[in-house]
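Notebook entry, structure prediction.
Reason for the run: the old model in the group folder had no record of what sequence produced it. Starting over properly, with the input documented here first.
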Amino acid sequence: MFEVTFLGAFIAGILAFLSPCVLPLIPAYLSYISGVGVEEIQRENRIFTPKVFLSALFFVVGFSIVFTMLGASASLVGQFLRSYQVEIAKIGGAFVIFFGLHFAGILLRQNFLRELIGVQAILTALFLFNVLDRESFFSLTGALAVVLALYLFGLHEYLYRQFRKEASAKISYVGALVVGVIFAFGWTPCIGPILGSILFLASQQETVREGALLLLTFSAGLGIPFLAAGLVMTLFLGFVRRFGRFFGVVEVVGGVLLVTLGVLMVTDKLSWFATIGAGI
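New structure, fully documented this time:
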């Protein structure tokens, strides 16, 4: 049976790769972990550089190991919290909604608080006109309250702080793997919202194996484009320049997907979404 959560995890990985604060940095990371300069590749017009690809492979293995371990531990913890699954799903869904708004850049809008109040007013109207049932109304209202609290505590400001470091030192393949591990733990301002959502889904899996596979699938979505970039770095540099015009679309699409996932979790409709995926 097709599991929509695994497809979602793979797509989430691709979206993490395409995000505007990850994709433009890929050439610099490839150059750093391989010790091969971007100007050197462009000057010699080499389409395939074995060292760049192998360094990228070790880098991907590094962050995949960490993400997979996180998925396994998340599902292990989830087994102890199974009796509170409904409550956790609602709270987790609120966080996913917040992450989706962050990814789409909506939290930085000057009138965000007014817009949040407007959404609450719409929900209230739908409830009063019996479009929303009582349980869904209070669940969504609670989710908006969580989003508001996280916003007022300034979590969005922390997530938007980016730290870019330049380095010119050449490192080995083992070093590339270590950098991949560091990437998994430290490069979260961009992929953190998406990763956090996938980790929550991993905590809801029945077994440790399923949770680990979910994060391995996410790693594949993030890692395969990275390997492709390392395989043909010269062509990838041109792709980055051309794709820049679509960064806004990637943000909006990723944000909408995350917010939709969060709403389904809050309203306990995620099983309905999975049923649609099972028919594919």
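Summary: The radius of gyration is 20 Å.
The old model has been moved to the deprecated folder.
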